[in-house]
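User: Can you recover a sequence for this backbone? Please restate the input before giving your answer.

Assistant: Of course. Working from this structure:
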């Protein structure tokens, strides 16, 4: 049973300083190219399930995979980045933003299945910046959900998520066997592959960007 954790392609925020970032950016031109290369590579895999977070950068990365693999992606509310949907930054404080609601998601991404927890008001409606404690709890919940979805030998899932959340997932999955914090930056459109045998996770490869030509590398 295989799980591939993919970081989204380069977003507009990745190319900007903190004070110019917005709460839900799309992909840059470079990011769109990264997503296309990623999709072409993943097409060669026997993928049976495709999951993503409700952020645009994750959804737009997933779209390049969906078009090639002909799967219905599932937008899972719990796969979002650390902190949730927010504006601002550490130096000035962070304010929760609603994020896209169910109707907007269906309009923009009609071929996707939307988590029933996402309301019309927005997937992060009236929520503050997520604390580290709450994020740790969500991480454990997501790992349990991954396990519940991987039930058969041929299950092969791809989850398009975010760098900081991906690091937290790996830390809980593989600790104390892997010092995730020492491994450096997680690249845009990178892939990390794991196997689940019903008892433990095994890491096959980490942070691979072998599917991206050098001009498309970014953090």
């Amino acid at each position: 049973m295989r799980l591939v954790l993919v970081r989204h392609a380069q977003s507009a925020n990745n190319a900007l300083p903190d004070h110019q970032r917005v709460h839900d950016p799309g992909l840059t031109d470079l990011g769109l190219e990264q997503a296309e290369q990623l999709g072409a590579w993943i097409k060669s895999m026997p993928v049976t399930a495709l999951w993503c977070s409700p952020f645009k950068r994750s959804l737009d990365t997933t779209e390049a995979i969906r078009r090639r693999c002909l799967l219905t992606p599932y937008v899972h509310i719990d796969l979002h980045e650390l902190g949730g949907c927010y504006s601002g930054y550490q130096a000035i404080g962070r304010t929760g933003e609603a994020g896209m609601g169910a109707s907007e998601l269906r309009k923009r991404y009609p071929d996707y299945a939307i988590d029933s927890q996402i309301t019309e008001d927005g997937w992060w409606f009236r929520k503050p910046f997520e604390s580290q404690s709450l994020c740790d709890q969500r991480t454990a919940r997501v790992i349990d959900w991954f396990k519940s979805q991987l039930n058969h030998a041929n299950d092969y899932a791809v989850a398009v998520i975010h760098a900081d959340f991906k690091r937290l997932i790996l830390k809980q999955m593989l600790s104390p066997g892997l010092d995730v914090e020492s491994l450096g930056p997680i690249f845009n459109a990178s892939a990390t592959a794991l196997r689940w045998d019903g008892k433990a996770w095994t890491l096959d490869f980490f942070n691979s960007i072998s599917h991206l030509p050098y001009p498309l590398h970014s953090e």
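That completes the design. The helical segments are 29-42, 56-69, 102-108, 132-149, 163-174.
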